[in-house]
Amino acid sequence: MPECRSLLFRGTVPSDLPGSHRFTGRSGNRYAWQGAALTGIGIITQARMTSTRLPGKVLLTADGHSMLAHQLHRLSSLNLITVVATTTNATDDPIAQAAADLRVECFRGSESDVLGRFAGAAEASSLDVVVRVTADCPLIDPSVIGRGIRRYLSVDDVHAYVSNVLDRTYPRGFDFEVFSTQSLREAAEGATTPAEREHVTPYIYTNRSGHTTLHSVRREHDASAYRITLDTSEDLTLIRRLITEHRAHELSAEQIIRVLDAHPELVQINAHVEQKKLGQ
């Protein structure tokens, strides 16, 4: 199996634009994020080739780069340890190789027990705080995630859970969750149902531990009707058009939302697609 080298993109938290593409990286160091006392804040993005609705989706391309590469470049602006969490299956060797080529850390674990895979990735990289994202969000906005990290740190509670997914006001495709490795470890030890093991965070945000506090990052105006995640061929068509026609990989969430506001014909491409429910 290809191994993944522990080399990272580096950058700064953007005020608006993620910036133009650069697919080179340098070794990363552990440090306090933006003056915070905690160290070991890292991003874990989950990826696999065997999507049921669009197999191999994270390595499909737009503007000459894979969807995974687009996401990792955008995340690099946060200047955080970033780990691609994929499976030990031979079918996911291309993802491990892609992470290695992009000089990003990789952790390989169970396909079905994604919670265990995340816990293993966090422990392997000695993370204190995990930012969870999924590789089917190639246009994820690092500045929105930055808001979530700052919110998490300001709460100063190891049991805090911060996200923009429970109280959804952003389009699907900008999703993130922030929680401590301690909470993740407790979930890995306590979660018993297949849905809890597959979807990583239900044990945390349903407060099975009895300690979790929930905190939301919200947009002033609800744009949750828009869909910019990658799960079907229609999603792929939309994302490719956003990238090739509107340079969306260089735009912030707010700018992408404005593009969709101005182009209802784009919105209609995947407006009929229903998100898979928990446990499906």
Characterization of this structure:
With 280 residues, the protein is an alpha/beta fold. Helices cover 33% and strands 14% of the residues. The protein has a 7-stranded mixed beta sheet, with helices on both faces. Helix 3 runs antiparallel to helix 5 (181-190). The longest helix has 14 residues, at 142-155. The two termini are 29 Å apart.
Keywords:
globular, 280 residues, alpha/beta, 7-stranded mixed beta sheet
CA-based shape: globular
Backbone structural class: alpha/beta
Give the fraction of residues assigned to helices. Answer: 25-40%
List the total number of helices.
10
Q: Major beta sheet, specifics?
A: 7 strands, mixed
Low-confidence stretches: 1-31
| Rg computed from alpha carbons, rounded to a whole number of angstroms | 17 Å
Query: What fraction of the residues are assigned to beta strands by DSSP?
Result: 5-15%
Strands, total number: 9
- The strands making up the biggest β-sheet line up spatially as 5-4-1-6-8-7-9
Oligomeric organization of the protein chains: single chain
Mean pLDDT: 88
Distance between the termini: 29 Å
Instruction: List SSEs in N-to-C order.
Output: EEEHEHEHEHEEHHHEHHH
